Amino acid sequence: MASTAPDRIAQIAIPIRDLERAKDFYGKRLGLTHLFDAPPSLAFYQCGETRVMLSPPAGPETTTASILYYRVEDVAATYRALVEGGIVFEEEPHQVAEVEGRPILLAVCRDSEGNYVGLING
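Predicted structure:
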């Protein structure tokens, strides 16, 4: 049986207001490796084992806080285990992208302080 505990931070979402300005900072100035863009307003970079996602805030009530995406082996199994443990999710597991022919699944909940927490398989 696969573990449902996260084993590393897979991705960090950094809210941005101006995509080109942010790409200049993270790519050209900071020197992170650009992976790909996802229209209309996302850009992905690599920092060691962690992906950095530049994206506009999720909604008007969202402040400029980062979101941690924890890597788990099986998003659906982890989701089920956490729901059974009393965690309420804002988003059930769903495919958000495909990278190198592999579906990337995501489920989103909030921590005890109201911060978003993402569970992702890639």
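Summary: The chain has two helices and eight strands.
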